[in-house]
Amino acid sequence: MSILYLALVENSGLLTRSALEGLSAALSLSTEVGSPLNVGLLGGRTESAAQQIGGCGAIRFLAVEAPAFTQPRYASDAAAAEALIRAAGAHIVLAHASSRWARALPGATVRVGGRMDTRISALTVADSKPMAQRWFYRQRIVAEFTRSERPWIMLLEAGIAPAWQGPPATVQMERVEVPTDPAWDRTQVQGTEAASLGEQTIRPDADLLFVAGAGWTKKQADGQVHATEAEELIRIFLQRSGASLGSSKSLVDQTGEGGQVLSLLTHLNQVGQTGSSPRHPKGLATCCHGEEPHVVGWRFITERRAVNLDPNCGWAQGKADVLYVADAFEVMRKLNELLASR
Q1: How confident is the model at residue 151 (pLDDT cuts 50, 70, 90)?
Q2: Residue 259: phi, psi to the nearest 5?
Q3: Coil, strand, or helix at residue 301?
Q4: Residue 340 pLDDT more than 90?
Q5: Residue 114 region by backbone torsions, left for phi larger than 0, else alpha for psi between -120 and 50, else beta
Q6: 63, 83 in Cβ contact below 8 A?
Q7: Is 307 in contact with 204 (CB distance < 8 Å)?
């Protein structure tokens, strides 16, 4: 069985953390099934990336590189992925989560006659067969399955494994030629736009996920709503701590309900059953009740803490490692003071 790991090379010439996490998962699967690993790199220049992971133990380093492949474009990415899969003769193809692979790999899968699964959250081996794990039905059901069709192409979720860390090494690269097509130029990338119009609050690489619940915009002890102060406290905390911002569905839904809202938030910040399941080492939830639809998005958070005035809230039912029964406004004011004094 031949295993190929596909990685996109950034314009900096290196691999992202998500790509290194996927590499760790691919190496683990390769070891468990006893099959050697091949690495396929795609980008404008790939030598530095190959050297970055040169010590990972892969037996082959294939590369498609040319200025045309710096553009995140379906046509060129799909052609490159197809060429790498065919060159490796791969039976199992793994790729890290990215918008480029999510867009291009389905087309490449059809061209090589394979099957594809996305959002793979874990890889295991049973009876010498690779098994994939993913969540279904709004993240309520987890399933483990395998496929007999080959090549079997899997798009791995970010955080599936710790990022690979090892010594760089010089490797012998095999360049795979992909003829450029003038039709590719019909699509040109004009630039990038941040997901939110204001301050960037979604930081996948942050050590801490800070989640704001609807309680921030409810009446406080004085009978008044303090949404403006809440937004300022959260904004300062994010700036000083470098945390990533998440939100419960009920809070971001207020945007369309005419209630007082936090301008920092969009539905892209939503965490939970109908939102995202980010992966951070630590999480701090404030002003939300810790109910199941919300907490399901926390299953990849290693250490969970929550602030809530209700000692019997959902977080207290075994969903948080530490629950602070306190006023979140007071906690955040104190936290911001401590962060400012560092």
Answers
A1: very high
A2: -85, 175
A3: coil
A4: yes
A5: beta
A6: no
A7: no
